[in-house]
Amino acid sequence: MALRCLLVDDSARFLQAARALLEREGLVVDTALTGTEALRRAGVFRPDVVLVDIDLGDESGFELARRFDDQDEPGGPSVILVSTHQREDFEELIAASPVLGFLAKSALCADAVHELLLGARGQA
User: Fold this and answer.
1) pLDDT of 65 over the 60 cut
2) At residue 124, does pLDDT exceed 90?
3) For residues 81 and 99, is the Cβ–Cβ distance under 8 A?
4) pTM score of the predicted model
5) Confidence of residue 86 (pLDDT cuts 50, 70, 90)
6) What pLDDT does residue 38 have?
7) Which of 44, 47, 50, 54 has its CA at a distance of 20 to 30 angstroms from the CA of residue 3?
8) CATH, residue 41
9) Number of domains making up the chain
């Protein structure tokens, strides 16, 4: 069964390009432009993983990750933060957040998502 991924970013252009890339690599992808839309879509789409941009315009990707974590659903989606910024720019915030990990947008691909998910399962 293909990995179901919800991609959340305030840039429609990025969503379109990233969706095409991830779908071409075998993921099933849905998209959202805002945190509210992401939470609503997640309830219907039931993603395995949510890729959240750190900078969501007026919203914070960190806050959205906390909102997903607060839902406390058994088997709920893992959250991975994505950004054009370097991981080092947000290292402490990432470590203190409930996210599974971080991916630079330039490194975004299905293999990188799978590696983070497999790494998390190996630690459990």
Assistant:
1) yes
2) no
3) yes
4) 0.92
5) confident
6) 97
7) 54
8) 3.40.50.2300
9) 1
